[in-house]
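chain and backbone:
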Amino acid sequence: MIVKKISLVLVAALALFVSSCETRQESIDRENRYISEHPPEDVAKYYRDVTYAEVAGEKLTLDVSVPDGEGPFPVLMIIHGGGWSMHTNTIMEGMARYITNRGYVVFNVNYRVLPNVDMKTIVEDCLGALLWVKDHASEYKGDSTRVAVTGDSAGGHLTAMLVTQAEDPAFKPTYSSATKDFSLTCAVPTYGIYDFIGLSRLSPGIAKSFLGAGYKENPELYRLLSPYYHVRKDLAPQLVMVGTADFLYSENIKYVKALEKAGAPVELWKYPGKPHAFLNEYWNDNGRKGYDRMVEFLDKHMKQ
């Protein structure tokens, strides 16, 4: 009875989320308003719109923020959220600058979005960005042997994809590297969706809106894009973060339990009373407490 109630709440919340989604331009206007109203921290060096790949004449870009000092510094790659269809990396700029000033070179990534491309292509953009970051980290005082990735919401899913399936031959990274080094020191997926097969059972229409096909039409695609089914013991350590009032709370707990069952290194941080997307609020404790917990985890794995 309790499980059924949780499932109904998740479906209702996801349906509300999908139906109330902003347009891409509205989301961009909102993130720009945040930056205007709440200027983020200054950093020693900030490089905007650096190209990491070009596809059919379209440049894919990321921002790089570099702390003061000689380095080399550990590296964090950020993948923004927004239902795989909204926002740009600007929504994570406040977070990127905050973490930069705690001793990290931060690469804040843009990727192509739904419905212009499918989700498999989005994963390939993020894989390409990771390879580019590893190839070019030293140009920005970064240490390519100490690389972590994080992302929130849709970015949480994409982060988990990079942890679990980076070397799956089904994916062709947008940027090609001779090294093909996808290794990560650690990762921090936050309040993401990790099981599209489970989502399709609860709400096939919502799942289809994200993946472009129903589960029965393409079950292989659903499994491919669901990190939940690809956990194993040898994964990089993960810190999963979620608010206790998030409509995806049970989804994140389920992912953590799967990792624990597989023997994979994982920590869980629950933010009491917080709903979805608290990391967007870089100007107050809603965001900063999350960043501080993240930095604590990153420091443990990349600075000690």
Observations:
- The radius of gyration is 18 Å.
